[in-house]
Each structure stands twice: as structure tokens, then as C-alpha cells.
Amino acid sequence: GGVKDYRTETVGDMIRGRCGWLCVFFVGLLLAAGVVRYFETLLREEVELSFFVPLLIGHGGNTGSQSVSTVIRAIALGQVGVGDALLVLRKEAAAGML
User: Fold this and answer.
1) Is residue 4 over pLDDT 80?
2) What Å distances lie between residue 76 and 14, 44, 56, 81, CA to CA?
3) Cβ contact 11:4 at 8 Å
4) 78: phi > 0 → left, psi -120 to 50 → alpha, else beta; which?
5) Shortest CA distance to 57 belongs to which of 32, 79, 26?
6) For 31, how many CA atoms within 13 A lie in the half-sphere containing its CB?
7) How far apart are CA 56 and CA 63, in angstroms?
8) Are 96 and 67 spatial neighbours (Cβ–Cβ below 8 Å)?
9) What are the residues whose beta carbons fall under 8 Å from the beta carbon of 71, sequence distance 6 or more?
10) CB atoms within 10 A of CB 23
11) Are the beta carbons of 80 and 88 closer than 8 angstroms?
């Protein structure tokens, strides 16, 4: 199968296509919850730190959205392909850490 046309793709096809990524995202959320739990005592003692948690989460989501958009554009323009996966991963990870 080639690329499906969005106009003719069924909702079931969309769900099947996204399910794996949503599961990966869920595991990431569980890891984030584990980090918060690990620092629970510190957050309880230093309540002001807890105000930054939503900011960090939101910033991470925005950064991820920008990375995804940039990579999808590069794929659509034929600038990167499957063989460039490690390059893209390294480049996006470095940009995300900055």
C-alpha cells in the first residue's frame, strides 16, 4: 500500500495508524508522572517549584510539535528519507536540548 488519500481514509484507518504513536505517547506520560512522583517530597517542601511543572510540560509539547512539523515538511519535500533517520534524530535531539 501506498499513501492513503486523507479524503478517502476511514476513521478506523486513522485510528489504526495513530494507535502505536498514542501508546508511545502514553508511555512517555507515565515516565513523566514517575519523575514527578520521584520528586514529590521536594515539590511538597518547595511548593513554588510545582508552578513550573505545567510550563515545562507545555514547552515540551510545543517543542515536539515544531520538530514534527519540520521533519514532516522535510519528508514531503524529499529532503530526508528513511536512511536519514539517525541524522534527523540527532539533529532534533540536539535542538530540543538547547
Assistant:
1) no
2) 19, 47, 30, 9
3) no
4) left
5) 32
6) 6
7) 10
8) yes
9) 80, 88, 92
10) 10
11) yes
Query: What integer best gives the mean pLDDT of the chain?
Result: 86
Residue type, 33: A
Q: With contact defined as beta carbons under 8 Å apart, do 84 and 90 qualify?
A: no
End-to-end CA distance of the chain: 39
Task: Supply 47's cell numbers.
Answer: 511548593
Report pLDDT digits (tens) over 15-59: 888 888 788 888 988 988 898 899 999 988 998 988 888 888 888
- The grid coordinates listed for 42 are 521536594
Contacts of residues 22-31 at CB distance under 8 Å and 24 or more positions apart, as own/partner, are none
Other beta carbons within 10 angstroms of residue 1's beta carbon come to: 3
Rounded to 5 degrees, φ, ψ at 96 are -65, -30
The answer to whether the CB of 57 falls within 8 A of the CB of 32 is yes
